[in-house]
Amino acid sequence: MKFETIPLEDKQHALAQLREVKGLFASRGWFAGTSGNLSIRVGDYSPDRFDFAITASGKDKSLSTPEDFLFVDQEGKPSEATRLKPSAETLIHCEIYRLTGCGAIFHTHTVYNNIVSELFWERKSIPVDGVELIKAFNIWEEEAHIDIPIVSNFAHIPSIVPEVTERLNPAIPGIMLRKHGIYAWGANAFEAKRHLEAFEFLFEYVYKWELLKRRS
Ligand SMILES: CSCCC(=O)C(=O)COP(=O)(O)O
Ligand SMILES: [Zn+2]
């Protein structure tokens, strides 16, 4: 089997983008208590062979250090010598890349995403009705309705993966882990960021709208 070498410029570009997104999300308070992780794919792709840069595990993501990221392969194993440990949730990134072929995946824990994941846990998806920002997902129909899938959260990350495989909807660029957080992806970092921001907006909207409805 012949693997293409990933051009060095691609790797540096991916790291520069990760650094920028990490700093921005940290400034919004989206990495509380070392939570969250980010990745960007580099080089050639086939569902059974790809590489990506990902945040190292357990770091304070509001800080910028020379040891924030490493490169891993499609199995989540470091693809170059490093003493860094990849995110504990790397296998979820691997599965999303395998299923979608996307270019970047961003994961955040927020109070709104955690609350709505529990509010709608019994129906296993978060419904959103006719909100303009649904268009951020390239869904342009009038008064569109979407359902954002929610999967179980387990401390043992490999146990989460089969539900991601089963529930991921290619039309919706995100999947929620119950009382944990959202994974959003896109063709590249720009799109993944737009999707994550739209999800977070919609979760706040859904939460506040539910409160208003329940009050009246
Ligand atoms: C401290 S939050 C628990 C782990 C988690 O959910 C997360 O997103 C961060 O884990 P990582 O290994 O990527 O730092
Ligand atoms: Zn997490």
Automatic annotation (TrEMBL):
| Catalytic reaction list | 5-(methylsulfanyl)-D-ribulose 1-phosphate = 5-methylsulfanyl-2,3-dioxopentyl phosphate + H2O
Enzyme's top EC category: lyase
Give the protein's cofactors. Zn(2+)
Entry keyword set: Amino-acid biosynthesis, Hydrolase, Lyase, Metal-binding, Methionine biosynthesis, Zinc
Q: What is its EC number?
A: 4.2.1.109
The pathway to which it is assigned is: Amino-acid biosynthesis; L-methionine biosynthesis via salvage pathway; L-methionine from S-methyl-5-thio-alpha-D-ribose 1-phosphate: step 2/6
Q: Where does Zn(2+) bind?
A: H107, H109
Q: Which InterPro entries match?
A: Aldolase_II/adducin_N, Aldolase_II/adducin_N_sf, MethylthioRu-1-P_deHdtase_MtnB
Q: Mind listing the GO molecular function terms for this protein?
A: hydrolase activity; methylthioribulose 1-phosphate dehydratase activity
Pfam families per UniProt: Aldolase_II
Q: Note how many cofactor molecules are bound and how.
A: Binds 1 zinc ion per subunit.
Q: Using the record's annotation, list all stretches that form the Class II aldolase/adducin N-terminal domain.
A: 16-207
Q: What is stated as this protein's family in its record?
A: Belongs to the aldolase class II family. MtnB subfamily.
Main function: Catalyzes the dehydration of methylthioribulose-1-phosphate (MTRu-1-P) into 2,3-diketo-5-methylthiopentyl-1-phosphate (DK-MTP-1-P).
NCBIfam families listed in its UniProt record = salvage_mtnB
Entry protein name: Methylthioribulose-1-phosphate dehydratase
Species this protein is from: Paenibacillus plantiphilus
Q: What is the lineage of its organism?
A: Bacteria, Bacillati, Bacillota, Bacilli, Bacillales
